[in-house]
Amino acid sequence: MTETALRVSPPVAVARKPSPLLDGALLPRLIAGVGILLAWELVVRALAPAYVAKPSTVIMAIPHVIVDPTFLAATGATLTAVAEGLAIALVFGTGIGLLMGRSPQFERAIRHYVNGFYAVPMIVVLPLFSLWFGYSGSTRIATIIFAAIFSIIINVADGARSVPREFLEVARSFRSKRTRMLLEIVLPSSLPYLLAGFRLAAGRALIGAVVAEFFISIGGLGYFILYNSRVYKHNEAFVGVLLLAAFGVGFELLVSWATRRFMPWYRRDEKTN
Amino acid sequence: MLKNSIRRTAPFWLSIFAGIALWEIAGRSTSAAFMVPFSATLVRLWQLVASGTFITQLLDSGQLFLTGFVLALAVGMPLGMLLARVRALRVGVEPYIMILYATPMVALIPFILSMMGFGFAPKVLVVFLFAVFPVLYNTVEGARSIKPELIEVAESFRSGEWALWREVMLPYTLPYTMTGVRQAIGRALVGMVAAEFFLSSTGLGQLIMSASQNFDTGGVFASILIIGLIGVGLMRLGLKIEQHFARWRN
Predict the structure, then answer these.
(1) Which domains does chain A have, with CATH numbers?
(2) Cβ contact (<8 Å) for A119 and B134?
(3) A111, B15: Cβ pair inside 8 Å?
(4) In a domain? residue B45
(5) Partner B contacted by A206 (CB < 8 A)
(6) pTM of the entire structure?
(7) What is the C-alpha to C-alpha distance for residues B33 and A139, in angstroms, rounded to an integer?
(8) Mind listing the pLDDT tens digit for each residue in A153-202?
(9) B110-137 in b/e burial notation, b at 16+ Cβ within 10 A?
(10) A109 and B93: CB-CB below 8 Å?
(11) Range of the domain at B64
(12) Is residue B73 part of a domain?
């Protein structure tokens, strides 16, 4: 672009965060973590009835919950549904997003619907989906897809729009076919956007799965939490929450690692939420 | 002028009308228990409005949303600012805020139900929990974007605390906080409906629930249409707020 832009020598990828072990962040983090757990423990001991989850009892519950076959089956059911739903949302979302980004007519035709459905709180479609698909796993999958697909479409379309014009001009002057251009130029160059969209989608998919399980009472982590808290086994139920939190954080870390590892040129100024 | 504005808005209306036509056709060609055409949805919506149930439920939901959301701002913004200013504190709690931000808060609803029961307070707590972490998370993110040199320079010029806030802290963190506010609006709306579904059934959530239990598909479509439009409107508002403050970002 400008001369100043050329003169700035260190590329973005080099300015990486130093590891927390080195810059002395570990100690304050440990102190804060212990402080939070301690406060939780003391407040619950002082004010709440005995069944309410607190750190000491949750830790005691972990060993027998994680070998409990019901818990393992529930985790498997939820994760499988999330994976299936995300895979479907990813395939169709990427396809629609690429078309939207590259075809102005198509974009104008469906833009308002994509943005509109994205803004609809996904949980309101549950009564409708349970009417359509019954009280079964299909409702859960449908909810997950609905929760996930629009953020993928929006981000992929953004990515496809921002493909450098020169790439396409070169391809066109070599008489490349439209589908090849879409798959071999537009798709790879919008990959960072795709990942950003996927990160959001994964979080929303997890929420969608849990909400669907609450609503239609089918086996899964959400239902495990619901059932155990109803019979006042809060500690056992909370292990489920911990696992959900671990998945949420895990997705987040995995995607930001993948972006840094495979696309170091990409700066993190993507659309969030 | 007029011609231009028609040309600009024509694709929008065209696509909206096409969507409505598609809805109408799909509704007419399937069973009424499955899908209801657009016209019938409007009729049902009008019945709900005329009978007065709709307005009461809307106000009820609005009260829940606003209470929870305002509480989230009242806690999230000052706390975020405090974290932004006190570096040791921020570094300490940063990872936990990130964890809570990524945790699906819906999973806590059963606990809230069995501890706090069916009142108004537990529902406000749900909306609050949904909305507060985006505000905190983004404010902390903004605080991280402040170069330490800026504060050092301000301090070496013997800047007072108030001037430091006005000239450095607020301009740097507020745009990020407002991104959080936009996200919080969307999440609070989900929290509101979730609380109305799974805690005591009130408001727009109850409207949908009772419609679907009575196999009143028209009522389900009417309520989803309204909540969807509210969602779109609030999202627009959030974007406006965010863009207003984004100009400060450089």
Answers:
(1) 69-262 (1.10.3720.10)
(2) no
(3) yes
(4) yes
(5) yes
(6) 0.86
(7) 17
(8) 999 999 988 888 888 888 888 888 888 888 888 888 888 889 889 988 99
(9) bbbbbbeeeeeebbbbbbbbbbbbbbbb
(10) no
(11) 37-246
(12) yes
